[in-house]
Amino acid sequence: MSKREATAVGRNTISGRILMAFIERIERIRDQKKQLAEDEKLVFAESAATGFDNKTIRNVLRRRAAKPADVEEAESMLDLYLHAIGMATETPLFRSVGNMSVDLAARDEVIEAFKQLVPTEGEIIVKIGKQPVRLFRDENGVAQAEDIIEKPTAASKPASAVTSRPKRDVPDVDRLGARALGATAYRENQPITSNPFPWDDERRQEFDGGWREASGTDGMGPEDD
């Protein structure tokens, strides 16, 4: 259709019907966009109700939509600016060193770069990841690097707060024998608490009974005059 035919739009003409088809398609797309926007609001409301932070989610969405190279460049510039105004204590270089420490090849490259900074007399100690590295110059002036192996400190064993009592030997006697042992214990000036039988042993009561029978008291206090 030529421009001249397109401008000759009248009601119930072919051009008018084609134009209406375009308009209706655009309207349907806008309705769909409106519905999708409403659905997005509902999803954000659900995430907030679950306890997630929607600002952070939007930040994640922007990062996922951007190119990885653009994200990396933006983060590097942000680190640089924050350090320049004193809002970041760690320099971007040291942060990059820590990130590259997980890659052995990158770690070697970092060490080689730091070798250029080693003074003629002195040394540099850097921590790449969790491993400290000592950089120094040998007698020929060549920069060298070696890992610093930290010696583990001997952990002192805590003293036991409660001293365990020595286990008493349980006599191999019956109930009558246990009662006789209780009477013998009293005659040998042993307290009733010297009962050698455990609490859940029925012979314990027999021992206590023999001790009380021999002493004429309950063993819990001084005798009455």
TrEMBL record:
Region (Disordered): 183-225
Signal peptide: none
InterPro entries: GapR-like_DNA-bd (IPR046367)
Organismal lineage: Bacteria, Pseudomonadati, Pseudomonadota, Alphaproteobacteria, Hyphomicrobiales
Basic and acidic residues composition-biased segments: 200-211
Domain annotation GapR-like DNA-binding: ranges: 19-86
Domain of life where this protein originates: Bacteria
Protein's UniProt name: DUF2312 domain-containing protein
